[in-house]
Amino acid sequence: MVKKEHNSNDDTIETQARKADVIDRHVGKKLREHRRMLEMSQQDVSELLGISYQQIQKYESGANRISAGRLYTLAYIMQIPVHKFFEGLPPAGQLITKTQADMHPASATDQYTSDYANNRSQEVTQALETLVQAIQRSSYP
After folding, report:
1. Which of 4, 8, 113, 124 is least buried, going by the fewest C-beta atoms within 10 A?
2. Rg for the chain, CA atoms, rounded
């Protein structure tokens, strides 16, 4: 679905409407689960947030993305840590599409680190392994 928007220069810009993605649906599903466990209605939650119950429906279906601030407030209302909304998701690397990965190319630091790892000497490798082992043996939490 293409929608047309106007910017401050009154230019018409065509943008692609955002589709619900797997993360939005998962977070919405978790919202519904926690809301039901607390025996709260969509109306109850919407009143606490100052929004319509229809907006809660859209959040729960994943049709609308929940902002970070709103998610933080929902976690507070439901007395749960924010990360509970993300439990059960696969690792981020499995969710990132090629298009998203292309938008965030590896940084120069990542390239340097990779080059260093590929070219370091046996002596450096041994020193790093010794350091890691010492850290594992330490009582540092």
Report:
1. 8
2. 23
118: pLDDT confidence band, cut at 50, 70 and 90? low
Record the tokens describing residue 107, joined without a space.
């940084």
Same domain, 18 and 71: yes
CA 83 to chain centre: 10
Count of structural domains, the chain: 2
Q: Quick one: which of 59, 51, 76 has its CA closest to 20?
A: 59
Residue 7 has pLDDT above 60, yes or no: no
Domain range for 86 is 2-91
Q: Are residues 17 and 84 in the same domain?
A: yes
Structure tokens, 7: 């910017």
Predicted structure pTM score: 0.58
Number of other residues whose CB lies within 10 A of the CB of residue 35: 20
In a domain, 99, yes or no: no
